[in-house]
Amino acid sequence: MRQSAPWMVQLDERILEHLASHSWAAPDTMTTAFTGTDSRATVWARCRRLSEAGLIGPLWPHSRMYEITTSGQLYLDGELNAHDVPAPGPVRVGPPPQKHERPCYTLG
Fold first, then answer.
1. Pro residues composition bias: which ranges (predicted)?
2. Check: CATH 1.20.1440.230 for 10-88?
């Protein structure tokens, strides 16, 4: 049985299953293949999130076409608990920095 992570949504499962059954796909193609109300922007955003988590990856750097990774396939097979996959994106620890503590860059 699959163990999804708290940051995952149902669309993530559909993306992973689609990529497992196809060699690769672009989010535009997946949007067309999925029936429902998921917009192209939503599928793009979820692909970026899954890529940050290492469950899917671009075919080559800066590509807009994705393929499932070994971790993604292990998750689909129920052999990887997604709770063990670090949450994608920046992790903030503690309160945000005060204005005077933020880095300041000047041009010159």
1. 87-97
2. no
